[in-house]
Specification:
The chain has about 375 residues and is an alpha+beta fold. Helices cover about 45% and strands about 20% of the residues.
Length: about 375
């Protein structure tokens, strides 16, 4: 996908930024910026193109104090009509690459830039090199009137932000991030609450008990977003953590008999669906609310296998009830997973426990 997107970052984007910066500052070296930048883009991937444009923008602003260059960038961002789309992305990259040299002005700039292109990646070097100052500003952003600015503290401080620069202290000690989430847990914006959930899911991978305790307390609040809590606990639910299951009201120890668990067809090639089928019978005296997942053990390059848990369904199973469940999954190559020839074991997981297994063969 990024390979297709990169072709959108071309001379058109360079020309738009040249016009906007020239309008904001008559000292901007417009012709030099165009001449140097556009030829460098050919052959580069998406992120590299953004970095080239950002570096050349900074260079074209000339020999001035970093704070002055950052002020010019803010003028461009705040001008109407608003800069949007691909032209906005290099502006966040400018803040990321050059902002740490003038952190006060750069953090001011983020308030405006993140409304056009999220500064979740741009803020990472600041959290690494100017943590206290950055953290104070992010706490202020949690009260901002723009939801895109409020989202930045949660998303930017995620311990395991995908594709973001690492900030080891946020992994080791998630409490500063939790203080941010405490302020945002009732935010009226769904994207902000979604970010809160993703942040907590990151924390859960290294501090599961802390997340369970936090959400157990939040779950008692009558106006809490239950979907946010469920999304935050998704990794722990797949792991079968009893505390996570309990927060969501699921049965933590199932009482079921598995009469059948099978996969068909038994041999598949790429682009073919497999169908999982199971018959389960409750042996409990009361209704059980059960999380049902399945685990595929994918064959890796060495011939060994690695498990991946996938969501199947949730069911309320009455005492003595028999239920047939089916699930289809497409077997195809993906950017995050490569299928290789060999036997792929499949396990049925109920309430976090493996209760049956079968397998299918992949031919590539």
């Amino acid at each position: 996908m990024a390979g297709a997107f990169k072709h959108s970052v071309d001379a058109t984007v360079v020309d738009e930024l040249a016009r906007r910066f020239a309008a904001a500052d008559d000292r901007f070296a417009t012709d030099d910026f165009r001449r140097r930048t556009t030829p460098q883009l050919d052959g580069l991937e998406l992120k590299a193109r953004m970095e080239v444009i950002a570096r050349e923008l900074w260079r074209a602003l000339g020999d001035r104090a970093p704070a002055s260059s950052m002020a010019c960038l803010v003028d461009v961002v705040r001008a109407e009509p608003a800069v949007e789309g691909w032209a906005a992305w290099p502006l966040a990259t400018v803040v990321e690459l050059f902002g740490p040299s003038c952190p006060t002005e750069a953090l001011d700039a983020m308030e405006h830039v993140t409304k056009r292109m999220s500064c979740e990646f741009a803020v990472r070097p600041f959290l690494r090199d100017h943590f206290d100052q950055t953290y104070r500003r992010l706490l202020e952003f949690t009260d901002h009137d723009d939801e895109r600015v409020r989202r930045l503290p949660s998303e930017g401080m995620r311990p395991r932000l995908p594709w973001g620069a690492g900030v080891p202290r946020l992994v080791a000690d998630p409490h500063p991030g939790l203080a941010v989430l405490q302020r945002l847990r009732h935010d009226p914006s769904e994207p902000v609450r979604r970010s809160v959930a993703n942040h907590l899911n990151d924390v859960a991978k290294t501090h599961p008990r802390l997340v369970i305790d936090t959400l157990e307390a939040w779950a008692t609040e009558p106006d809490i977003d239950r979907r946010m809590i469920a999304h935050a606990l998704r990794t722990l639910v797949k792991r079968g953590e009893p505390g996570a299951l309990a927060v969501l009201g699921f049965t933590t120890e199932s009482s079921v008999d598995v009469e059948r668990f099978e996969v068909s067809p038994a041999v598949v090639e790429m682009g073919v669906h497999v169908t999982l089928t199971t018959d389960v019978v409750s042996t409990a005296r009361d209704t059980q609310r059960l999380v049902v997942d399945f685990v595929i053990h994918h064959v890796n390059a060495s011939g060994a296998t690695s498990p991946k848990v996938f969501k199947w369904t949730t069911i309320d199973l009455a005492a003595g009830e028999r239920r047939t469940l089916t699930k289809r999954r497409l077997i195809q190559q993906a950017s995050t997973r490569t299928y290789r020839a060999g036997t792929h074991r499949v396990e049925l997981q109920i309430a976090g426990r493996i209760v049956a297994s079968t397998s299918f063969e992949v031919r590539v």
